[in-house]
Amino acid sequence: MFNDLGYQLRVVWACAKKDFHAALTDRLFTILSLFVPVNVLILMSLFVLAGANAPTAVVMEDQGPYAQAFYLAMSQAHSFRLQKNSAAEAERLITAGQIVAVVTIPADFDAKVQQDQPVQVGVKINNLNTDFTNDIRRAIPLSITSFYAKVFPNLVSVSVQEKDLYTHDTGYVPYLGVSILVIALMMGGLLQSGTAAAKEWENQTIKELLLSPASRWAITEGKMLGSFIVSLGSTVIVLLVLIVFVGVVPINWGEMFGFTLLSLVIFNTAGTLLGTVIKIRQPVIALSMGISLPLFFISGAFAPISFTTPLLQVIARIFPIYYQIVVLQHAFHGFALNTLSLGGNTLILIGYALVLIILVTVALQRTTVSH
Amino acid sequence: MKTNVASIEMVHLVKRFGNFTAVDDLSLTVEPGEIFGLLGPNGSGKTTTVNMISGLSAPTSGEVRVMGYGLGTHTRQVRQLLGSVPQETALYEELSAWTNLDFHADLFGIPGREKKARIEAMLDLVGLTDRKDSRVSDYSGGMKRRLALARALLHNPQLIYLDEPTLGVDIQSRRAIWDYILALRQQGKTVLITTNYLEEAQELCSRIAIIDRGRLVTLDTPEKLKQRFGGSVVEIESVRPFEMMTELRALPGVEDVQQEGRSLKITTQSGSNVVPQIINMVAQCCEIHEIAVRVPNLDEVFLHLTGTALRD
């Protein structure tokens, strides 16, 4: 009977069903684990928004066509969030720390441009943040060049002949949104499965499992399936927020669903391993949070890892998160972020999943109840 | 299942945790159909021994066989034959009694067509049918023990192991649990109990093994253990009991004299006929309010054998 696959599958389903029931009864924790990934998504989105275009006041002392053209060039520089203010209002805003810079287009701007005389555009910068300060310092000269290229095309003889690798640009938010999806899946999966596994030890119910004739393999699979089902809830919520509210729509839905589920399997398996080895919920929670953030930052969350240092690239390639970001960016935006094919990346991820499953089974197999 | 074999056979069993030896060269046999008690103070190695019997812990050396099956080679068969009631019950407290039993039935491969009837029968046996849908966390300690017992019996095991079955249980529930255990013997099941309560062992067990510091101190029936302890225990309540202690200790045939409030407890040696002399001696000194002569209980046997009280 015990070699019977039907019996082992029954154990798998019984363990999954039991963990699902247990999660439903522990409502507070379930709600928390459902919303932690969403919370991560919101937090990281706020981070993205905070690091976006610099709020800048423009004092238009000249309303002439050249002044207007210069304003337009600034607005197309992808660095400013422009607002027109009076000189007094702009001064008040920068003193209050509400804007990064005040750009003053002088009253004689049009006249001097027309006469081909030098003209100074006043820039006052709140330089408490180098990131924003440098954005302003880079974007103003760029705006001047753009202005001249548009208004006096004959004066600017050097131009850019751009060839794009992809048919469309991808914004910072849509790129990072996909990476955030990976960290949200990671936190949700690790927390859910890690705590479900550790709880068995904390409550001593592990004895019920270990004293049964069921194979450790079936118990492991069952526990992971249970966590997987619970984690699906938070995954659906995160995907809804990303697609509906943030507006990051996948170009390949099938890939998106497939890679999301594969990622969930990996994170649930890793969480089960964590819970089985550590056996106490509190450190599992702390570790899940502690692992997720640094791995997120080094795994190409903001840009391909090839843009970073060689050491960081080596570290990133050790962990599955890097490959998950690669395949999900492909699903959402069609990018190929490394030299491996999509199939190659997928095989690596399947390999991670299998190794983790084996590790969990071995960990449970080697487990004895010490006294 | 193999026939005509011991239910449990331990041969030179040793378990070490680093430098600490929890079980030290333990050899004993539990026969089919008996209720066997494993007694010892906290930390004596009882639970470690049972963990090795159930395969939860691997011995450092030595061998355990359950119903003739070696644990290393036939772990699954052993687990199917064994029903366990761990000390901490290991119930899923957030789930109902029915869900706990249903899960256990799936883990032990009880056929789907029998499952419902067997769960109902077990709940009925332990008197929890009307609370089958309540969460276990809402149960009293006694109810949890009864449910854990029902779960252990659900897959119809031949050997049932109960770790401190009445620990923290009220007197009424304790009696009920004792009755269930005694009924198991009538069904031909073998029961292994670890307990700190000698009264419990005396009431239930056909044989008792006393272990201390991981070693077997003695193994016998409760009655024979008491006989081996020696003679009688004389309890005398008088006005000034302490005045006679030195003289009583000097009497040939007196093994021990202890004062407890206004009472003296005098333990005599086996074969001695010193009881009349004791009574005379105390009566000459002071007025006797109450006197009792009885056989020793297992607490006294344990103290005698190990030098420590059982509930240390």
Main sheet properties of chain A: 4 strands, mixed
Average pLDDT of chain B, rounded to a whole number, is 87
β-strand number of chain A = 4
Series of secondary-structure elements of chain B, N-terminal to C-terminal: EEEHEEHEHHHEHEHEEHEHEEHEH
Do you know the CATH architecture of the largest domain in chain B? 3-Layer(aba) Sandwich
Task: Give a count of the beta strands of chain B, DSSP E runs of length 2 or more.
Answer: 14
Helix count of chain A equals: 14
* Class by SSE composition of chain B: alpha/beta
CATH hierarchy class name of the largest domain in chain B: Alpha Beta
How many helices of chain B? 11
Assembly type of the chains comes to heterodimer
What would your notes on this structure say?
The complex is a heterodimer of chains A (371) and B (312). Chain A is 67% helix and 6% strand. Chain A is mainly alpha-helical and 371 residues long. In chain A, helix 7 runs antiparallel to helix 11. The model of chain A has no long low-confidence stretch (mean pLDDT 88). Chain B folds into two domains: 8-226, Rossmann fold, CATH 3.40.50; 231-295, ACT domain (Alpha-Beta Plaits), CATH 3.30.70.260. The relative contact order of chain B is 0.14. The model of chain B has no long low-confidence stretch (mean pLDDT 87). The chains are: A mainly alpha (371), B alpha/beta (312). Chains A and B meet through helix 1 and helix 8 of A and helix 1, helix 2 and helix 3 of B.
